[in-house]
Design brief:
The protein is mainly beta. Helices cover 15% and strands 51% of the residues. The chain has a five-stranded antiparallel sheet, with helices on one face.
Length: 96
């Protein structure tokens, strides 16, 4: 069973940051369902969402723009699979 995270890259004029929105063990289909859930519900704390725009960048990444009454939030959300881990016996310590 693979390990996945849904990663959000928050895009602001002053600074950018990264946040893990979800973490799970499961199949690729389960991970894609988690990605879709996060993309469809992401609001970054905007209390009154006026408009949500979702742009597909690839099969596993989306750009989400959420407009509030007085604010705008943009975020790049992507699905990431764990491929290396020094603490896991079944995974390599690095990538080639």
């Amino acid at each position: 069973m693979a390990r996945w995270i849904v990663l959000a890259s928050l895009l602001d004029a002053e600074a950018s940051s990264y946040r893990t929105l979800a973490e799970l063990d499961g199949s690729a289909d389960e991970a894609m369902a988690a990605l879709r859930e996060e993309v469809n519900t992401y609001d970054r704390g905007i209390t009154k969402v006026v408009r949500r725009e979702v742009f597909r960048c690839s099969e596993r990444s989306y750009f989400v723009r959420v407009n509030g009454r007085l604010s705008l939030s943009e975020c790049f959300i992507q699905l990431c699979e764990l491929v290396a881990d020094t603490a896991a016996a079944d995974l390599p310590d690095g990538i080639d």
